[in-house]
Specification:
Layout (H helix, E strand, L loop, with lengths): L4 H12 L8 E2 L3 H11 L5 H19 L5 E7 L4 E7 L3 E7 L2 H8 L7 E2 L1 E6 L6 E7 L8 E5 L2 E2 L3 H12 L4 E5 L2 E2 L1 H10 L5 E3 L1 E2 L2 E2 L5 E2 L5 H6 L2
Parallel strand pairs: 1-12, 4-5, 4-6, 4-8, 8-10, 9-11, 10-12, 11-13
Antiparallel strand pairs: 2-3, 6-7, 14-15
Length: about 230
């Protein structure tokens, strides 16, 4: 098995940390890594980028929900009654506009009765700081399993701001799902929100001078929407 030095370095940081932090879960399923390679490739056109991102989002979500509690229900089949399961709590998806919509498109068909909230956070390209410009959050956050969706965890500014808004609105159980992350963003998120687990397909080497993840995949929103 191959190990990414960035993952090992981040794990070392966490071991030395004075606060309890959650290590990110890197989904290394072979199919997930094939979809990741496709969306990294600069030659991948928008329609293929969308398809691979949607499929990868589903795989990340399935891993992130592996431990969700369920409750037993009675189901009548054409022949008799049997027992089945249903989710014990409601689910809320929160894509960070606009790139997070690419993850939502892949995940929502798996849980079509989930609620969808939206937060608009735009990065200032000069300062790399987050600017929150929109939020539409449901009233049931405290009773729900909440998933914050954003393909890229770079500086961590947008994720931290999104998590701050969700907690302020009452969310108690939040999971972050991203496609590509880096040590800087994970470190920022763990300092601000050490209770939030992160599921990602890769921990890349780091940020360049423009605060873009390297090797990364470019601007996920632009590539998904073809702009």
């Amino acid at each position: 098995m191959r190990f990414n030095p960035a993952v090992e370095n981040f794990a070392s940081k966490i071991k030395r940390a004075t606060v309890r932090c959650m290590l990110p879960v890197v989904v290394q399923h072979p199919l997930a890594q094939c979809h990741l390679a496709a969306i990294r490739a600069v030659a991948t056109p928008p329609h293929q980028f969308r398809r691979h991102l949607n499929l990868l989002a589903r795989m990340l979500f399935l891993e992130a929900t592996r431990e969700l509690p369920v409750q037993e229900i009675t189901v009548r089949t054409p022949l008799t009654e049997t027992t089945g399961s249903q989710l014990a709590r409601p689910m809320v998806f929160v894509p960070i506009l606009r790139a997070g919509l690419g993850l939502l498109d892949g995940i929502l068909p798996l849980v079509p009765d989930a609620s969808v909230a939206h937060v608009g956070i735009k990065r200032n390209e000069e300062t790399a700081l987050p600017h929150a410009y929109y939020a539409n959050l449901p009233a049931n956050l405290a009773s729900a399993d909440v998933f914050l969706l954003d393909p890229m965890l770079a500086t961590g500014g947008s994720a931290c701001e999104g998590l701050r808004q969700l907690k302020e609105a009452g969310a108690l159980r939040i999971t972050m799902i991203c496609v590509v992350s880096c040590p800087e963003g994970l470190d920022a998120l763990n300092r601000a929100h050490p209770d939030v687990p992160v599921f990602t397909a890769a921990i890349d080497d780091g940020l360049n001078e423009k605060c873009y993840i390297v090797p990364g995949l470019g601007d996920a929103g632009d590539r998904y929407f073809g702009t």
